[in-house]
TrEMBL record:
Domain GST N-terminal span(s) in chain numbering: 21-105
MF annotations from Gene Ontology: glutathione transferase activity; maleylacetoacetate isomerase activity
GST C-terminal domain ranges (all copies): 149-295
BP terms from Gene Ontology: glutathione metabolic process; L-phenylalanine catabolic process
High-level lineage: Eukaryota, Viridiplantae, Chlorophyta, Pyramimonadophyceae, Pyramimonadales
PROSITE patterns the record matches: GST_CTER, GST_NTER
Protein name per the record: Glutathione S-transferase U1
Domain of life: Eukaryota
Any one GO cellular component localisation term in the record: mitochondrion
Length: 334
């Protein structure tokens, strides 16, 4: 996350950005927050002008371009723009969309607490923003707290695979334009070693435990969701209707798809059916499927093929699953 020059959350009536449509969205295909806002807009049936902004993981630091800095000096996505006035922070954007078009209700009366539970657990909360600098104990505590954090711990193979298709020119460009040297350097290292980074000493001593902690807790959060769904056979996270809780969960499932982690809920039949139900909604097609970039499909295909070719890589990503054991079996075998 980039904090410098961050404008305050909410609508900025004092700013007038050039625009061609009443509602515009600056967003990125891969970004969790962008996905949530796109799903909300699709669920509400709100038309908008789509301005895709690349981040280095999808192609280049377009978010650092002078044009984009006019939209958001904090260089983050998403930014929602209404009649030229930007709304910063995805949470404020979602609330703004809710007031703009209250029906269909995404936070139905009486379900506020349940929705809040799932939206809070879907958050990514990483102290200091760096998984690599956390102890295993801190990783476990953070992953246990939030489903979003545990899924974020599974994202490294996805990013490494994406970097394999980013040009060196775009990586070096980061040293010139990206305000955080540490992150520009991380992109350089990830590009340099590609997917092998996961299993390569000395990096593997950090990366393998991060993925392992992420996997263990993701499985636990999925089991919790399975239990909630099975309790009364509800189709969606909070009951009969699709709500903001599902909006928040979609981005996590999409990341699990992106990293080919579906094996984590292969035996959780209620979760499996839930994910299929979500994918059959038109909002999923409009907000997620239609935005999957070729580089994202390629990154997933590379992960699948690496797992077939390199047993240590498969082991790092799948743990005991790679050897045909469920995560629960694996825990019990300790
Ligand atoms: N709290 C912000 C977070 C925005 C954010 O950090 N977005 C990420 C993508 S998920 C970003 O734009 N990062 C810039 C980068 O990676 O260079 C929100 O909810 O909108």
């Amino acid at each position: 996350m980039v904090k410098s020059n961050a404008p305050s959350a909410g609508v900025h009536e004092e700013i007038n950005l050039p625009h061609t449509a009443a509602i515009e969205l600056y967003h990125n295909a891969l970004s969790f927050c962008s996905q949530k806002v796109r799903v909300c807009l699709a669920e509400k049936g709100i038309d908008y002008e789509s301005n895709h902004i690349h981040l280095i993981k999808t192609e280049w630091h377009e978010n650092c371009s002078s044009l984009y800095k006019e939209v958001n000096p904090a260089i983050t996505v998403p930014v929602l723009v209404h009649h030229g006035h930007p709304i910063y922070e995805s949470l404020s954007q979602i609330q703004y969309i809710e007031t703009l078009k209250p029906i269909p209700e995404l936070i139905p009366k009486g379900l506020e607490e349940k929705v809040a539970f799932w939206t809070a657990t879907a958050e990514v909360e990483i102290e200091g923003g760096e998984l690599g600098s956390m102890t295993e104990e801190a990783l476990n505590a953070a992953a246990a707290r939030c489903f979003g954090t545990s899924v974020a711990m599974l994202s490294m193979p996805v990013f490494l695979s994406l970097y394999e298709d980013i040009t060196w020119g775009n990586i070096f460009h980061g040293f010139l334009v990206y305000p955080n040297f540490g992150k520009a350097f991380t992109s350089f290292i990830m590009k340099l070693f590609g997917s092998n980074f996961i299993t390569m000493a000395p990096f593997s001593t950090k990366s393998v435990p991060i993925i392992s902690v992420g996997r263990k807790h993701t499985r636990q959060h999925l089991e919790e969701l399975d239990k909630a769904l099975r309790m009364d056979g509800r189709p969606y996270a909070t009951g009969a209707d699709f709500t903001m809780a599902d909006v928040a969960l979609i981005s996590l499932f999409e990341r699990l798809w992106q990293g080919n982690y579906e094996f984590l809920f292969e035996d959780l039949l209620a979760v499996k059916a839930y994910w299929q139900r979500i994918q059959s909604r038109s909002s999923f097609k409009q907000a997620i499927l239609e935005h999957r970039l070729p580089i994202m499909n390629k990154a997933r295909a590379r992960i699948i093929s690496m797992k077939e070719k390199v047993p240590a890589y498969k082991d790092a990503l799948e743990g005991k699953h790679a050897r045909g054991m469920s995560e629960t079996d694996a825990l019990m075998s300790h």
